[in-house]
Amino acid sequence: MVAKQFLEFLAGGRRYACDLLWVKEILRNPATAPVRQAPSYVAGVVHLRGQILTALDLETRLGHPKPSREPASRCIVFKTLAEVSRLPAPPDGFDSADPDLLGILVDEIAEIIPSVTSILPPPPETLSGLDASCISGVILGADGLITVLAIGPLLTPPAANLSLPA
Amino acid sequence: MSAHDNEMLDLFVQESTEHLQTLESDLIALESDPSDAERLNRIFRAVHSIKGTAGFFGFSPIVNLAHVMENLMSVVRAGELVAEPHIVSHLIAGSDRLALMIGSPANADEIPHSEEIAALQGILDKGKSQPPSAPKEQPSAPAAAPLEALPAELDDFEISAADCLPGLRGGQNFFIIQAPLEEIEALGQTISGFFDELASLGTVLDVHTNAASLPALLSAASARLSCSILFATQLEIGILIDAFGLASSFVIPVPREPLGDWVRDRGAAGPALIQSPSADRTIIPTQRSIELTEAAAPEVTVLHAVPRRRKIEETVRINVSLLDQLMNLAGEMVLSRNQLVRLAEAQGVSPVEGLRSAVQEISAVTSNLQSTIMRARLHPVGSLFGKYTRIVRDLSQKLGKDIALEISGDDVELDRAILEGLSDPLTHLVRNSVDHGLELPSERESRGKSPRGTVRLSAAHLAGRVQIEVADDGRGMDPSKLKAKAIEKGLVTSEQAARMSDNEALHLIFAAGFSTAAQVSDISGRGVGMDVVRTNIEKLAGHIDLQSHVGLGTRIIIRLPLTLAIVPALIVGCQGQRYAMPQINLEEIVRPDADNPLRIFGGAEVLKLRDELLPVIRLASILNPASGGEIPKSSFVLALRLENLRFGLLVDEIMSTEEIVVKPLGRHLNSIPFYSGATLLGQGEIALILDPAGLAHGRISTSQTSLPNSKTLSLTRTMDARRVLVFTDAGSERFAAPLTGITRVEQVRREHIERIGGRQCLRRNRASTLQLVRLSSILPVSDPGDLPEEFLVLVPKEPHSHAGIVATGIVDSADLPDGALDDTTLCADGVQGTALLLDRLTIILDIPALCASAGIGYAPSPEPATLSLATS
């Protein structure tokens, strides 16, 4: 199996990574317009070259308590369903990609992890209270453990009980 | 691979469906004129194409049925059989079966069609055994056999004598070019390039391929397709072969003399025109230059000698999402352009030579690009109107009525989405006209009318919108009967009914639960009433109106915007965010103040609006329930109307009115009921579009029932037709403008007025300007003198919303009683007449006429203001 490349980034002091194939582009300091009465994990909408992107707050989406901090400084924009479907080898879970533009807000982009050969299953006790379907495993990085996100489920609107407005 | 096959299959279904549509309308028309040769040809070709392509995919049931139909048509076309009504009926039945089969081609054999085949075959067998029945009606019949000297390949072409005439007259040479498509591609040319080149050298008279049409041909280029082209040119054969690098075996010359004879035999050509071909050579240069300019057009449009059929093949199918994407990109470009313009202006006296003009150039091109893409979304209404021919035919047979359907304006174009949404309401209206509107022939004759009734379906452009009309010359509607019915159904009280004008009574048919059909018939009156029609039309941002006169007929008028992608909206602010409210739901804007505050009534907030209490909800507390009850000073109440519900929405501030481009919200947000989408404003900021139904849901209906007058709420709109706004303009006269014609009243300071070319204008926002109309300069009234420091402007509704009528004071609003209007004492352009209102003689204005005499035309076709340029 060909080793995948991963993008590593930070949010709420935690380290995350996702399959690089999913990533369309990264926005610096996105101007997020809030959407009242939206599910709590939706941070708002962003104007991206004539289109409207829904920005999710990564931490809240995973189930971490909503942090009170500086506005996130980076937005990772994911490929749309049409775009991932066109890839010669689409990433895992690509059929649950969003037909529209979607991104997640994070604090910092770290680096690209060139080749990852082994992803460990996450220890179950670390997942309590989190949306486990969005986490596919753990990589042992140089600076510590990195949570690998399953982007397909992450981009799918969670079941109704999780999407209660704030 | 399978994706490619599916694409081909989709293409087949689409094309065949188009063929079937023309087939059906042509067959129906054939009933009234069985000898129309042009139409017979079209029918034959349509069936032939369907058969050919179906064969390509191996759908044998479709081929079998189409084959019999084609055989029958070829007999009819050859004049051996006359298309009598029963034959046409069988052909229509056949085309219905074909439609079913093409709907699911893979399961075509499950659809029974043997009966149709047997019936058609029966006609065919019978017809063949009989001698030709009506030889005198066949003008061109015996000439079908080509003369000996002509190449047999000529038979493949569908040409008329008229097609060949210009070439023969101009002394051109005729060739048949037969080339496998691989051959053309092997020469390093694309197929369309090849056609372009041909077109630049002569005239393509007809193209014959074994594929149905050009799109199919282009996508199937790898298949073994070949095409033959009948081509007329000034060139000699040697030069032609050299020009294209084709092998000489692919080019077959058609001798001129026999062709001339053949054309003459076909009947259309006067012999004199052909006899002296070379004498006319002087006209050649002109003709060629015309053809060259035509060839410069992007499409292969030179086929102008073959008028109608080619047109269909010159289109390219584009996915709507691709168009949306183009729209987005153009919108994005406009935003960048606006930035560029601001930068250029910030430079002052521009240091870079020519920067300003380059920016202006880009501005113009960008706007143009955007409106062109917009136009690509439009479809002619003819595609929709076409289906009513069939409906009217079937209904009139069923009901024993004799009905002519007149269709006009079928080239008027509308957004695809609107056309789709219009289909059901229009069907209902046409059925109503046929079923209820038109009388039986005997009844018509006894009233001195022609026994044949008429239903007229028309479309026209009107003031930047499209007006569609369904009119009949039937029995019309009787207002008194409508009133009686409405009282019986409990929709109005008898006192209300007595106060109603005839026009208001007619509008009762739009009330929910109202149906005039005395008995429920199979055709209409099955519960889908006019209220549903009205709701559907209003969903399309349209407006429906009707006129009816007893004994003369009924006319239903529908006005629609060209497109749904751009809607006029009011931009409002709430808690620091901007929101867009579509104008279609907005009736007026009211400011609550110390004299007329928000009051509490039955646990809900209400605002007194004239003699009615309007339930009010607050946008801030809906969107952010935690927010406090403080009302900012700048607050306004938007009076909104939804079907039969009226309510007010309290917003923090009013920003501007703009034409917005609607963009959908993604799947994480589209379940929030309060928004129907989002839009980008001029500087790129996002405004969410409010959905009044979602905001009102669960908040209004309960409080509304407790309101006095609520029973008449659904009728207030029609009552409003006679409400006027009474105002003054410094002089002694009082004026009144119909409230239905006014969008809003604005307060203006004199210093904001700018003069452009002798006209006084008010820069309203970066998007548009209001052109001020001073009544004293148009009407024969006293001179009010200069504009005061502060004054008001009345802004009329679309399409006159860029005019502003100057007023110095609002007196009140009043009802204009029936018969109060005196249109003889004061006659002037822009005036309806005078009336005694509020104890004073008042001049009643006619706003459209007023704007016309002020030299203010209609608003140009909608261009989104968010995307238009700030004028300097």
Write the layout of secondary structure elements.
The complex is a heterodimer of chains A (166) and B (872).
Chain A: E1 4-11, E2 14-19, E3 23-28, E4 32-33, E5 42-48, E6 51-57, H1 58-62, E7 74-78, H2 81-86, E8 102-106, E9 108-116, E10 135-141, E11 144-149, H3 151-155
Parallel strand pairs in A: 2-11, 6-8
Antiparallel strand pairs in A: 1-2, 1-9, 3-7, 4-5, 5-6, 7-8, 10-11
Chain B: H1 2-32, H2 37-57, H3 60-77, H4 85-103, H5 114-129, H6 161-169, E1 173-180, H7 181-186, H8 191-201, E2 202-209, H9 214-219, E3 226-233, H10 237-244, E4 251-254, H11 256-265, H12 271-275, H13 284-295, H14 307-313, H15 320-346, H16 355-376, E5 378-380, H17 382-399, E6 403-408, E7 413-415, H18 416-437, H19 441-446, E8 453-462, E9 465-472, H20 479-488, H21 494-499, H22 502-506, H23 530-539, E10 543-549, E11 553-561, E12 566-574, E13 577-582, E14 586-590, E15 599-601, E16 604-609, E17 612-618, H24 619-623, E18 636-642, E19 645-651, E20 653-661, E21 675-680, E22 686-690, H25 692-696, H26 701-705, H27 713-720, E23 723-728, E24 734-738, E25 742-749, E26 753-756, E27 759-763, E28 769-773, E29 790-796, E30 803-807, E31 809-815, E32 831-837, E33 840-845, H28 847-853
Parallel strand pairs in B: 6-8, 13-22, 17-19, 24-33, 28-30
Antiparallel strand pairs in B: 1-3, 1-4, 2-3, 5-7, 8-9, 9-11, 10-11, 12-13, 12-20, 14-18, 15-16, 16-17, 18-19, 21-22, 23-24, 23-31, 25-29, 26-27, 27-28, 29-30, 32-33
Helix pairs in contact in B: 1-2, 1-4, 1-17, 2-3, 3-4, 3-5, 4-5, 6-11, 8-13, 15-16, 17-18, 18-23
